[in-house]
Write a structure and sequence with these properties.
Blueprint: H1 2-17, E1 29-31, E2 36-38, H2 48-68, H3 72-101, H4 122-147, H5 152-168, H6 174-214, E3 219-221, E4 224-225
Helix pairs in contact: 1-6, 2-6
Length: 232
């Protein structure tokens, strides 16, 4: 009911006040509602063509490798072999057409062909590298804080997650996990950005419940007792 939701919101807000936060803009994210989502042009589908090609490309790659039994290098060599074979046949046919039928000569540099001017712009590469480096640095910082048991609640949760991961990784392959992460990265942020007014009440209630359970642990920060919030 409304009274219970209000109580849980107070508990969540009190617990959140104990945790120092960094503005979302400084972490490469964007706060749409209760949660912060990573903001990147590809993940937020700002250019649907580019995002769609990357999303479907990896889905197709996973389907061929995982479902059809190809290896990554085996698939890559077969694709390159097919492309090279088709190009040899095409160029040979054009050369024969030029020599025997008087067709127009081939451009020596193939300047007018598709992808002849394709190149990765330095600015695009720098933005991609900065995004990846920022994600890696944030991960390292979070991992350091967790391994050093700065917050025992977080460290216990991490230990439990690792225990679950030992079973998960014995069932699924790394490529399958990468596929799940890929699909989640291209669907969850944009879905939350569109639906957060409806999703936030459930998230807030779940977080409040989880924090209420975690508050029962004897210590929040190693060596310092946690002040357990009182419900009004």
């Amino acid at each position: 009911n409304a009274e219970y939701m209000g109580t849980q919101l107070k508990v969540s807000n009190r617990m959140s006040a104990q945790i120092p936060t960094v503005p979302a803009s400084q972490r490469g994210g964007r706060a749409y509602g209760y949660l912060e989502v990573p903001h990147h042009a590809l993940l937020m589908w700002e250019n649907p063509l580019n995002s769609g090609l990357l999303f479907l490309g990896f889905v197709l790659f996973y389907s061929i490798v995982e479902l059809m039994g190809y290896t990554v290098l085996g698939l890559l060599t077969r694709i390159l072999m097919l492309v090279q074979g088709l190009m040899i046949v095409f160029v040979g046919a054009r050369l024969a057409h030029t020599k025997y039928l008087g067709g127009p000569p081939l451009d020596a540099g193939r300047a007018g062909w598709a992808l002849s001017r394709f190149a990765i712009h330095e600015s695009d590469a720098q933005r991609a590298v900065h995004f990846v480096v920022d994600v890696i640095n944030r991960f390292i910082e979070e991992l350091r804080m967790t391994l050093y048991v700065v917050n025992i609640q977080r460290s216990v949760l991490f230990f439990g997650a690792l225990w679950v991961a030992t079973f998960v990784f014995s069932i699924v392959s790394f490529l399958t996990l990468a596929f799940v992460v890929h699909v989640a990265a291209f669907t969850l942020p944009i879905a939350y950005a569109m639906l957060y007014p409806k999703v936030d009440p459930h998230i807030i209630l779940g977080v409040a419940k989880a924090r209420e359970l975690l508050a029962k642990l004897p210590f929040g920060v190693a060596g310092a007792p946690v002040e357990r919030p009182k419900v009004d």
